[in-house]
UniProtKB/TrEMBL annotation:
Lineage per the UniProt record: Bacteria, Bacillati, Actinomycetota, Actinomycetes, Streptosporangiales
Annotated EC: 1.5.5.2
This protein's name: proline dehydrogenase
Species, as recorded: Lipingzhangella halophila
The keyword Electron transport is assigned to this record: no
Binding site for substrate: 99, 290-291
Cofactor(s), by name: FAD
Domain Proline dehydrogenase: start-end pairs: 44-301
Pfam assignment, any one: Pro_dh
Amino acid sequence: MVLRHTLIAASENERLRSFVARTPATRGVINRFVAGERASDAVRAVAGLADLGVYSTIDHLGENTADPAQAGGITREYLTLLELIYDAGLASWAEVSVKPTAVGLSLGAEGESLAADNIARICESAAAAGTTVTVDMEDESWVPATLRVVAVLRREYPWLGCVLQSSLRRTEGDAAAMAGPGVRVRLCKGAYAPSADTGHRDKRDVDRAFVRSLRTLFESGAYPMVATHDPRLVAIAGTLARRNGRGHDDFEYQMVLGARPAEQRRLAGLGARVRVYVPYGREWYGYLVRRVAERPANLLFAARAVASR
Ligand code: FDA
C-alpha cells in the first residue's frame, strides 16, 4: 500500500517523467504498456493484435483538461483516430475508450453538457466508422455525472459502453439498474482508492463485489465486458458464461496492453472474445506509473531489461 501511494505520487513528478523517457530500460516498459505517442502507433498496435485474433479498445491518454478548447482538441483527436481505424479496415477489431474529464467533464458548471456534446460527436464518428465507444470511469467524484451523461447518450447510441468499478459500494445497484438487453457494461475493480464510506477497502471485498455484479450482468441480457487480469475472476467469468448459456459472442474478456499477453492469446485461441485496452498519446507517464503501482512486479520487467544489457 505504501509503495502504491509512493508510486502514485511519483506519477505527478515531471523530472522523473523525463528520466523514465530517456532511460533505455524503462523505455522498454513504456513500449510494453503504451502503443506510442501518435494515433498511427495505436492503429499499428491494433493491427498486430487483430493478427492474433484479439480485439482492441483505444484510449487517448490524458484527463482533466484545462479548458473547452483543449477538450475540443482531444475530441478531434478521437475523430481522426476513428477515421484512421476505418481507413485501415480495422473497424470490426477496434473501438475507442473515452475519459469524460478528458473531453470536458471537469470544467465547472458547463462541464457535464460539454462532455456529453463531445462524447456524442465521438459516438457519431464511431457509428459512421462502424464501431463503438466505451466511457471510462474515473475517481468516485465523477461517477454520478458520468452515469447521467451515459444514460442520456444511450437514448441515441444504445451501444455506448460504460465502466463500473466493483470497489464502490454503489456499483451493485448501478449494475442492476443498468443491466438490460444488450447493454454494454465493462466491469473492473477500479483503479482509484474510494473513501471508507463509499467503497470497499479490503481487496477480498472488492473481489466478492465484482463477482456479485458480474453475476447480475450475466443473468440479465447485458453484454458483460470482464475487465480483469485476475486469474480467479477470469475463471469465474467463464463459469458464469457457461451457466447462463452465453456463447463466445455474448460477452468478452478485457485486459490492458502488455498485461498477461499469453493469457490473452490463450483465451482468444479457445474462441473467446478478448479485447485489449490500447493506450497512446503524450500523457503516457501517469498511466504507466499506475500500472506499476497496481502490480509492482512490472518493475521486475524493467530490472530484467537492465540486467540483459
Ligand atoms: P488485481 O490488480 O487485483 O490483481 C489480481 C491478480 O491478477 C494478481 O494477483 C495477479 O495474479 C493478476 N494480475 C494482475 N495484473 C497482472 C499483470 N499485469 N500481469 C500478470 N498478472 C496480473 N479502472 C477504472 O477505475 N476505470 C476504468 O475505466 C478502467 N478501465 C479498464 C479497462 C480495462 C480493459 C482493464 C483491464 C482495466 C481497467 N481499469 C479501469 C483498471 C482496473 O480497475 C484495475 O485497476 C486493474 O485492471 C487491476 O485489477 P485486476 O482486476 O486486473 O487485478
